[in-house]
Amino acid sequence: MGKLGKKARKFAKKNLQSVLKHRRKTKLFFKKKSPKDGQNDVEETLDNPVTIDNGRSSESESIEITSLDAVFTENEEDEIANASDSDGYLSEDPSCPYAEGENGKTLEEEITTAYSAQNKKIHSDLATLKKKLDRLRKKDPEFSKFLESYNNSAEAFQNEDSYSDEEDSNDQGEQGEDNLAKDKAKFLSNDVITTWCQMVREDHSQSALISLLNAYRAASHYGTESVGHRIDNSETFFNILSFTLSNANDVFRGILKISSSSSIKEASQKLKKTSKWNNVKPLVKSFVRSTLFLLNQVTDSDILTFAMARIRTSLIFFIAFPSLIQRLLKATMHLWATGRRELSSASFLVIRDIAETLGPSYFNTCLSKTFISFICLSRVPEISDIENMQFLRDCIVELCCLNVQKSSVKADASINQCARILSWGIQTKKKEAVRKICSWEYVNCIDLWVRFISANIRDYDLQSLFFMTVQLVNGLAHMFTGPRYLPLRLKCVEWLNCLSSSSGNFIPLASLVLDILEYKVVREGQKGQNAFNIASVLKLPKHYLKSKSFQDECFHSAIEQLSSHFAQWSYHISFPDLATIPLIRLRRIHEITTIETLRRMVMRLIDQMEQNVDFVQKKRDDVPFSPLDHQLADSFLQLEKSSLNAPFTQYYRSVLDKACERRLHKRDQISLPEQKTLTRNAAKHKRKRVAADVSGSLTEPKTSKKNAAKPKRKAVAADVRVDAEDGPAVKNGSVDNKRRKRSPKAQ
Fold first, then answer.
1. Which of 348, 358, 408, 606 gives 362 a disulfide partner, CB atoms 3.0 to 4.6 angstroms apart?
2. Which residues are CB-neighbours of 209 under 8 A, at least 6 positions away?
3. Which residue has the higher pLDDT, 446 or 700?
């Protein structure tokens, strides 16, 4: 082969991939020589090319690292001071009656015998887990180092946050423990407690009150201390708790001459001015500390709900000890975030009273802690109980309404943080950015501030927050355009509708809803799936895209939001112009939709919009003013609007009623996260059964081909019958019928 010509060599040198590849490799090394003093700098830039920064990368990295609750954790101080002058034990009067040395099992002995079998099982499970951890430590030394570091940090955390009485290291605390050791441990029977309660209620006996408070301390510390009174049975235990929690507030108010009708602020001011406060203070402090310890010990939801309700009535005595308020807030926040609805409601009322009564500093603390707890609960891939999250969101909105000015500052910072994260995601298109934006943490944060703005924009100047939030929601809706993100886009439409209706400003959102209605993701006659709540999903699983239930749910939700949007402006003078383009697109959607029920739904909306267009057009043709007269234009059809008798208003009411019926119907059905769990469990069960069948076939003795064929056919028929009895994997009659048709053939 001859030598290449000059032009060919020139072309190869410029364009061949090997030449370009070699040029890219050697490009960094052929740079302008740096001065002698800067030789090391050149070497460092070549060794670490990532450190070369253009300004944007550092900003995006900081956005990636910063969490959404960073705004609330900047100035938060969560310090629990040494909150006690004593351990809570009070010196008793020896003349006060009590029972000594009664026979029979105590409550502790009864519980020990009842739960001995359960404890054995727990110990065996722990031993198994310990063996597994030991194996992992031997295999992976790095994992062993991680466990050691984790154990050290956990021990330090427990020592720091412990609520036990060992915190109190002062002289008076040691004196209280000595008093308790000197006194004989009493056996508390139900008769003794009843006698003390009667003496406190009728005779106002201070010695009986002291004994009862010590019994209440023993009940709240039950199971954590070996020294103390012995409680007879569970009836005595609940008698101590119920009487002390129910009557302590009235007893202390009666001694201090404080009226129960006075507000918390007035009562807290009168409290320390009374002459008897110094004498009653140790009793009140013992009650308060025992109650706080009870909140961290008891796990029964009913007892905790009752305790939180009584704490709210006795809040003035907790306020008298500022060092204990932090403990109360920490326990109450935990119960508010993790408890059932009744317990969460009772806990929030205590939080709200503290924020409202104790000034701006405690309001900031309560708001920060509730927001952080809400965001922490949102850091999950799926939320099964969406109604509980909405309840927690409404609680925070109600708390924000106590001080709108301070809350708006926090809201502004939080929305700016969300906007920076969205901008980072749009610029970089990274998977981490998309995952952070399409998450419950991000969505619930926006949802919270949308509800806050909607609740207060009529009474306060929140226009800057309003426009910033509208831009953020619009950007979020246009970032995710695929059919799997339709639930997220529907949430964005719902937020825009909420902001528009509360502020009275027009937001063009009809195109977003019509885009959702135009998606063609399923053909008629495909296999059905379980109905699910679209509000509990952000990104839809792929197999649900081909389900009829998904398209039904999207259509119903989209029609509901579109009806809400047009119902808001159905009496406006510009409604005929507003409805022109949406009507054209709705007719096109009606033509391409193949499912008859959905076609009827779209056709009904078209008819109602056309009727309302004709109604507004006739009224508009008769008005004497011009479009430039804004005052008269705003007063257009105000009488008809107040009567609520227009056809479109009646139609929108029917849409809301049907939506409410669908939500009530879905409460009885299984949610999408629960469906995934059941599907995984069913798959595991099926794999185990197949593995058992395979192992059984391997252990069977060898037989002839004729004899071996018969048992196989019987086994298949038996499997089909078992599947049919267990029920279908999908709640649909067609799947069950197919299985039942196969079973006789197999037999």
1. 358
2. 200, 251, 283
3. 446
